[in-house]
Write a structure and sequence with these properties.
single chain, FAD/NAD(P)-binding domain, 2 domains, 8-stranded mixed β-sheet, 10 helices, binds flavin-adenine dinucleotide
C-alpha cells in the first residue's frame, strides 16, 4: 500500500525531458504549484533533437532563457535542399517576420541542463529525479499518481554490481497531470489512448563528426528519389550527418535517452563509422567536400509517424513525444512539444486561477491534433502553384517534415518554395502508408 505524499500539487508533470521541464517552468512562473518527476537519475547525455525552431526561441524568450540558449548554440539562417551534386532550392529563415529569424543548433543535453538550471533559478523548482510514475487513476475530481522512489542498490555476490530498486512507493494527488513522459508514455497508456501509426518506419543512421575544413553555414538537406539526409553544423567544424537507411521494415522500440555523454573517440568502431560516412557522402552528398577527421558518436535509430488519438482526457494531458513522433530531419516533435507545453500551461493556469472552463482542454486536444494530422500528411495535403519549381512539386509531400519550423513560420517557409497546405477536413486519423520523411 503506497504511503500518501504530504505535498499534493496543483499540477504533477511526469517527465523532465525538454518539454516537461519547459511546461513546469511556464506553470511555476504563473504561480501554479508544480511537482516535476522523472524516472532517470539526471538530464540526457547526448545531442538528440539538436535544434530550436524560431518559435521555440520565442517561447524560451518569454521565460527569459532565449539569450542564454543563443550564447550556447550556433545560429543558422539558411536551409538548402540538395539532390545528387546540385542544390535544388533554398529557404531564407532570415526573411521570417519574427523576433528570432533563425534556427539555433543546440545539443539536447546542453538544452536540458540549461532548463534544469533555469527551473531552479527562476522558479525555485528542483526536478525530482529517480521518481517513476507507476500508475495513474482518476478519483473524486483529482488525478492520483502512484510513484516509485528509486535508489541504487548493490546486488550480486560473486560479481558485485548495482541496479535501481524501488525504495518507497508514494501516492500523490494532483488537480492535473501533464504527461511529458516521452515515446513509451505511461500516462498515455493509463488513459487508454491509442497511439496511431501510419506509413513505414524509417531507419536513420547518425554520425557526429569533426572536420578539417569549415562546414557550410546552412542546414543542408538531401532529398533524393528514395532517401533523405541532413547535415546540422554544431560549430564551424563539428556537426552531425543523419542519413535515412532503406531497410527499416518492422517497427522497433524507440531507444531511451542515455544519461551519460561518454563516447570513445578513436575506438575500433570509429574507423568503420568514418568509412561508412564517407561512402554515404559520396553516394548522396558528393558536393560535401570537407574531410572527416573523426567520428565521435554513431547510432542507428528508427523513427515512425505516430500520433495519439487524443492529447489527453479528464485530468491528464499529453505534450511532446508522449503524444507524437515524426522523422528527425525537421526536429519537429520536440519543438512542437514546446508549443504544446506553453499552450497547456496557459490553459491549466486559466482553469486553476481564473475559473476557466475545462472545455479549454478539449480545444487543446482538437487544435494540436489537427496541426499534427496536417504535418504528417494524414489530412489536407499540399498544393503547388504554377510557378512552383518542378523538383519541389515532385517531392512536395516530403518537404514539410524536413523544414525546421511549424505553425505560421512553416506556412511562410513553404510559401517561399511555392507550396501551401490545403485546408484540412475534419475526418478520423490514422491511415496506413500515407507519407514519407
Ligand atoms: C538516440 C536518439 C536520437 C534522436 N535524434 C533525434 C533527431 O535527430 N531529431 C529529432 O527531432 N529528434 C530526435 N530524437 C528525439 C528527441 O530526443 C525527442 O523528440 C525529445 O527528447 C522529446 O522531448 P520530450 O520532452 O517530449 O520527451 P523526452 O525527452 O523523451 O523526455 C521524457 C522523459 O520522461 C521520463 N519518463 C518516462 N517514463 C516515465 C515514468 N513512468 N515516470 C517518470 N518519468 C518518466 C524519461 O526518463 C524522460 O526523461 C532522438 C532521440 C533519441 C533517443
Amino acid at each position: 500500500m503506497p504511503s500518501k505524499s504530504k505535498t499534493p500539487s496543483e499540477v504533477l508533470v511526469v517527465g523532465a525531458g525538454p518539454v516537461g521541464m519547459f511546461t513546469a517552468l511556464r506553470l511555476a512562473e504563473s504561480g501554479i504549484g508544480v511537482q516535476l518527476i522523472d524516472q532517470a537519475p539526471c538530464t540526457a547525455g547526448h545531442s538528440y533533437a539538436c535544434a530550436l525552431h524560431p518559435r521555440t526561441l520565442q517561447l524560451l524568450d518569454e521565460v527569459g532563457i532565449a539569450q542564454d540558449a543563443i550564447k550556447l548554440g550556433h545560429l543558422i539562417e539558411t536551409v538548402a535542399f540538395y539532390e545528387g551534386a546540385f542544390q535544388r532550392a533554398e529557404l531564407k529563415l532570415s526573411l521570417l517576420p519574427v523576433k528570432f529569424p533563425f534556427v539555433l543548433v543546440l545539443q539536447q543535453n546542453i538544452l536540458e541542463d540549461l532548463l534544469e538550471q533555469k527551473l531552479k533559478e527562476r522558479a525555485g523548482l528542483e526536478v525530482r529525479w529517480n521518481r517513476r510514475l507507476a500508475d495513474l487513476a482518476m478519483k473524486n475530481g483529482a488525478a492520483i499518481a502512484t510513484i516509485d522512489e528509486l535508489a541504487m542498490e548493490g546486488k550480486g555476490y560473486s560479481v558485485p554490481h548495482s541496479e535501481m530498486a524501488v525504495k518507497k512507493t508514494v501516492s500523490v494527488s494532483a488537480d492535473f497531470v501533464v504527461g511529458a513522459d516521452g515515446q513509451g508514455s505511461i500516462v498515455r497508456e493509463r488513459l487508454g489512448i491509442d497511439y496511431a501509426r501510419a506509413g513505414k518506419p524509417q531507419l536513420f543512421v547518425v554520425y557526429e563528426f569533426e572536420t578539417k575544413a569549415q562546414l557550410p553555414s546552412e542546414i543542408s538537406i538531401v532529398v533524393d528519389q528514395h532517401m533523405a539526409g541532413v547535415l546540422w553544423p554544431f560549430t564551424q567544424n563539428k556537426g552531425r550527418w543523419s542519413f535515412q537507411w532503406l531497410r527499416a521494415n518492422a517497427p522497433a522500440d524507440f531507444p531511451q535517452k542515455a544519461r551519460s555523454s561518454f563516447t570513445i573517440v578513436g575506438s575500433p568502431g570509429a574507423e568503420d563509422s568514418r568509412h561508412h560516412l564517407h561512402k554515404l557522402l559520396s553516394a548522396h552528398a558528393p558536393w560535401f567536400q570537407a574531410e572527416i577527421k573523426e567520428v565521435g558518436w554513431a547510432k542507428d535509430i528508427q523513427f515512425e509517424h505516430r500520433l495519439a488519438r487524443q492529447f489527453g482526457r479528464d485530468r491528464a494531458w499529453l505534450a511532446g513525444d508522449a503524444a507524437h513522433q515524426t522523422g528527425p530531419i525537421g526536429m519537429q516533435s520536440m519543438n512542437m512539444g514546446f508549443r504544446e507545453g506553453a499552450d497547456l500551461a496557459a490553459k491549466l493556469t486559466r482553469i486553476l486561477r481564473d475559473k476557466g472552463s475545462p472545455d479549454l482542454l478539449e480545444t487543446y486536444d482538437v487544435e494540436h491534433q489537427m496541426e499534427w494530422e496536417q504535418l504528417l500528411g494524414w489530412k489536407g495535403g499540399l498544393q503547388a502553384n504554377s510557378a512552383t519549381d518542378a523538383w519541389i512539386r515532385q517531392r512536395s509531400v516530403r518537404i514539410p517534415g524536413c523544414i525546421p519550423a511549424s505553425g505560421e513560420e512553416l506556412t511562410l517557409l513553404l510559401h517561399q518554395l511555392g507550396l501551401e497546405f490545403k485546408p484540412a477536413q475534419l475526418e478520423k486519423v490514422g491511415t496506413e502508408d500515407t507519407v514519407s520523411v
